[in-house]
Amino acid sequence: MDPFESIKQTFFQECDELLTDAEQGLLAMESGEADDETINAVFRAVHSVKGGAGAFGLEDLIRFAHVFETVMDEIRSGKMELTDEVAKTLLRAFDVLADHVAAARDGGKVEEGRSQGAYSELRGLIGGEDEEDDLGGGGDEDFGFVPLTLSIEGEEAPGGFIDLDAQNAEAGVEIPATDQASRDELASWTVEFSPKSEMYAKANEAGLVLRELARLGETRVTLIDDTLPPLDQLSAEQAYVSWRIQLFTDSDEASIREVFEFVEDDCNLIISRDRAEPSVAEPADDGLSDDDRAAAASANADLDIAALLARVGGGDADAEPEATPESVAELPPAAPPEAPAEDVAALIARAQSVAAPPAAKPATPAPTPAPVAAAPAAAAAPAAVANAAPAAAASVTIRVDLDRVDRLINAVGELVIQQAMLSQRVLESGLARSSNVALGLEDLELLTREIQDSVMAIRAQPVKSVFQRMPRLAREVADMTGKRVKLVMEGEGTEVDKTVIERLADPITHMLRNAIDHGLEDPEGRAAAGKPAEGLVRLRALHRGGRIVIELQDDGRGINRPRVRGIAVERGLITEDQVLSDEEIDNLIFLPGFSTAEVISDISGRGVGMDVVRRSIQGLGGRISISSEPGKGSKFTMSLPLTLAVLDGMVVTAAEQTLVAPLSAIVESLTPRTEDVHYIGGKDAVIRIRDIFVPLIDVGVALGFRETAIDPASGVAVLVESEGGGKAALLVEAIQGQRQVVIKSLEANYQQIDGVAAATILGDGRVALILDVDALVTTQRRKPAARPSEKRMAS
Amino acid sequence: MTAPLTTSTSPSRELIAFRIGDQEFCVDIMQVREIRGWTTATPLPRTPAYMKGVINLRGAVLPIVDLGARLGLTTAEPSARHVIMVVNQGHRTLGLLVEAVSDIINVTEDMVQPTPDVACDQVKTFVKGLFAIEGRMVSLISLDRVLPEIEAEAA
């Protein structure tokens, strides 16, 4: 892959994470739970997005992110009050921001009106101030910009050198002369700044940071070069020098820290307030991305080149932006004449002789100070040592390609099968259970289980990644329908296999749309019903009985049963005289082609919604049900397996074949008594189980393994419940037992087979088929019935 | 993996020859992953007669096609002397049940003769060409069509 593309991809991956964080922060802001740190986090996230966008020249994104950032800045600095209205505007604008990121990634374009609308809204918040041109703050906006004239620079110092020395020396001299009273008003800070080599590696420049710092007030800068080795031991990649700066300013610590914003992770920074406050050392951790820093650094680089090139003399304008040792020469003689300083002088002499050709060598020169003064040895505190780096940045997560994890999971699946085979073989060979081999195998089994669990845990992820898309959806649907919605989400940390998560998004999306579009009343309707104008939708995830349960509950009008029934009759889904329980009526909405919305809207699709939901959940081996109370709301409950890789099954024998029935579908098993089995029309068997008649399906016949059904009394009936709540009894010859099986796809090498969900490999090494209970039940019904849905509901 | 049968421009290539009944067929050696003895397959419901079922190939579910039945020749009652050729067909892997693997033959492209018009349609569908090797006739099988209906049914 093009390296640039790969960097860009990393940027977009980071964007996703940043946007997620930002959205959570914004939601917290909306609900009034946000503290300063939350607001700062949102600001930083947006800022980082902007910074990265700058590096890739994504103009639209930069422009939008900038105005967003400006608003966030106003809020965090307290200039703007965080009202409900502001929070809502920000959330809307955030959606557009996310679209901008998506558009930049996928090469599309955000709808002009939408973007412009949100942009104007944000601008409206800022008010009359024209912030657009104020791009200097982050310094990462515009790559081509000419060095800004900073107040500290001597306008045209001889040779173009930006004479900080003079400035500082002057400051140093003047200090005693300055009005002592005003000095007292200004706090005195001591900043110890020890860059690490990483900082220079990211093309940051200490001199620029110091210059930035000097904008806050008078500075007295001391160069600490104690660790500078003799020239012959000097490594070009290492950082040796640090600075101690005494700063007189009315700015607070945060503002001082902000100067170091881009380098904070890559230096040791101690900011302490002299006299009044104790020294505060803080591990650098600002959550900024490398992109951000890099963006800033490249933007800043220009400034330095001009200054340095002038010094080097004869260097052409395209030379490496890194600092060369040249500027060290400007150290005033007043600097402590210590040995290292002499080495520096030697270094410079060498460097100058070598630097006859323009400094175009790709090697990174020693990270040496840009023009910085060593004021008369003012303070004598020990130098900050660069290698005392805080190890706080150690990462606790790694990114792993999903393919690799899948390969591992497959391998472990095979291991489990092999292990089971081996155990069975040993058992068959007649070895005693107490033999060493058998005991060793038992240990192996335990170990295998543990490995399998651990591997599965790698792929388990919190449902958060799906849930986090929902607030936006809720806002959009609410806007389109003119309803007001509050979405409450719980259990976002509930973990489930990644393959399940990926396929959860669609069903939840459908259900959420339905809940808002169909379930909730409009504000007037709610007022009339005596409910708060804002509808409440609760999305919840939890673990229950080895499955994940997802509930979506609204406090809307509930299912209008007479109307649902009417529509079902109208569409021929049920007959007019059919008696249905409330629950059965509710479940009618899952039938294909059913939509209760009088007007088919964009939002809820074309009446395929709940049917699609049910089918995709069934596809995951899950089930969905609804409970509804008129006037109070509805609750959808989905229950899904935690993983698609293993399944708890009942191993049965039918037509001499070993088959596996998913345990989740099984209600009970029983031995049929001949007097309980009846034949409708002399053909289709039904069995009476506690006074309820359910179809009795001979599995061997249903799968086409044999022509005639076995005598029910000679087999075992397994009562299963299909997704619609319909029950049926599967007739098999025998039940072998219950075990966890590894699911193997049939489609990978062959194709889907009706009635078979997948395959697995049993302990004897043979392939066994996993029954698709729902398909078996519905196929059976479809066969004799002219109207399958009628039959389905009738059960 | 694409079928080298159609894309190969190399003048010489190796083929694996095998027997079904009294006829000899061959496929490109690059398509054959391994050859293994017959093990009892788990039958699949509602599948054509030439689908023998599925077996466990080191943890993967491998469908087995009775190639003789597929070609409309003989339906094999598999025994221990039958072999399964594990072949790659597109992105799938499947097993072909044949009576025996007989030879590895080296051929050049110009040795391939087009299938004469006499062959019945079913055979013509699968046979891409003929070779004369030491007086025997060997038919080159195109694997692409062994399970052609998969895409349509799976869709």
Task: Describe this protein's structure.
The complex is a heterodimer of chains A (795) and B (155). By secondary structure, chain A is α+β, with helices and mostly antiparallel strands. Chain A is built from 25 helices and 23 strands. In chain A, α13 packs antiparallel against α14. The radius of gyration of chain A is 36 Å and the shape is flat. The C terminus of chain A is likely disordered. Chain B starts with a helix and ends with a helix. The chains are: A alpha+beta (795), B mainly beta (155).
Number of DSSP strand runs of chain A:
23
User: Spans of chain B with pLDDT under 50 lasting ≥5 residues?
Assistant: 1-8, 150-155
CATH domain class name of chain B: Mainly Beta
The helix fraction of chain A, in percent, is: 40-55%
**What count of helical segments of chain A does DSSP give?**
25
Overall shape of chain B: it is: globular
Q: What summary fits the major beta sheet of chain A?
A: 6 strands, mixed
Can you tell me the CATH topology of chain B? OB fold (Dihydrolipoamide Acetyltransferase, E2P)
Class derived from helix and strand content of chain A: alpha+beta
| CATH-assigned homologous superfamily of chain B | CheA-289, Domain 4
- What fraction of the residues of chain B are assigned to beta strands by DSSP? over 45%
User: What is the CA–CA distance across the termini of chain A?
Assistant: 57 Å
Shape of chain A: flat
Number of strands of chain B: 10
Number of helices of chain B: 4
The interface involving the most residues is between: A-B, 30 and 25 residues
Largest sheet of chain B: 5 strands, mixed
Average residue-wise pLDDT of chain B: 80
Number of domains of chain B: 1
**Which range does the strand content of chain A fall in?**
15-25%
Q: How large, in whole angstroms, is the Cα Rg of chain A?
A: 36 Å
Domain CheW-like (chain B): 12-152
Protein name (chain B): Chemotaxis protein CheW
InterPro entries (chain B): CheW (IPR039315), CheW-like_dom_sf (IPR036061), CheW-lke_dom (IPR002545)
